[in-house]
Write a structure and sequence with these properties.
Keywords: Membrane, Transmembrane, Transmembrane helix. Pfam families: DUF3159. This is DUF3159 domain-containing protein. It comes from Dactylosporangium siamense. The chain has one domain (8-211). The protein has helices at 8-12, 14-34, 39-60, 64-84, 92-110, 115-123, 134-163, 167-196. The chain is mainly alpha-helical.
Length: 219
């Protein structure tokens, strides 16, 4: 595998996305505590913080779709907490999205359309050409299991805290663990990718079609 290939962290910009997701959570917990456990104040600060982060990222023209989705999740979390009157329910949407993500990533592996391949292939402008490279497809499948594990780890940590109504600990865990967990996932999945590919493989940017597909033009 070419040593000049970028790492997954380089390709996917995981650090920026992870840090951005922490800001509204810290804002919610800070407002909730400062307002004498006021869900309204915490929700308001979280939405304002999320909007500020989104405006900054959109101004930089970085991942506009992901930025908008992140802001919508913050707003939905605020609405749920205000509706139920339980501050810990601000985190409920995040718990559900993590559970759904774990199932979706596992499903993508089983149907041989691993999400990691789809994401990296899109970033590299390859469309689905990587799927006609059997070793690369298998490598993406193996590395995608690391991402399933990431979501399960989050659930193992956050669900008991949510169940116990530990708002401050939920915010703390999200702030402390988000970037290290994403960094660990990126590093581990990159290691799995490199180990799964044959030494002579030219790398992620250069899918090698199977002999029977060599003469078939890609989508």
């Amino acid at each position: 595998m070419h040593n000049g290939d970028e790492s997954l962290a380089d390709l996917l910009g995981g650090r920026r996305a992870a840090l951005d997701s922490v800001v509204p959570v810290v804002g919610f917990a800070g407002g909730w505590l400062a307002g004498g456990r006021s869900i309204a104040l915490g929700a308001g600060i979280a939405v304002l913080a999320g909007a500020a982060v989104a405006a900054w990222r959109l101004r930089q023209r970085r991942a506009p779709a992901a930025t908008v989705v992140s802001l919508l999740l913050v707003c939905l979390g605020a609405i749920v907490a205000l509706h139920t009157g339980r501050a810990e329910d601000f985190f409920l949407v995040r718990l559900l999205t993590n559970a759904a993500s774990a199932l979706a990533w596992a499903g993508s592996i089983l149907v041989r359309w691993p999400f990691l391949g789809l994401i990296v292939g899109t970033v590299l402008g390859q469309k689905a050409r990587w799927r006609r490279d059997p070793p690369l497809l298998r490598a993406y499948q193996a590395a995608s299991w690391v991402w399933v594990g990431q979501y399960l780890v989050r659930l193992l940590i956050f669900v008991p805290l949510w169940w116990a109504g530990q708002v401050t600990w939920l915010a703390t865990a999200q702030a402390v663990l988000t970037w290290p967990l994403v960094a660990g996932c990126l590093t581990a999945s990159w290691w799995v990718l490199r180990r799964a590919l044959p030494p002579e493989h030219p790398g992620l940017r250069n899918p090698v079609p199977a002999p029977s597909d060599a003469g078939v033009s890609g989508p």
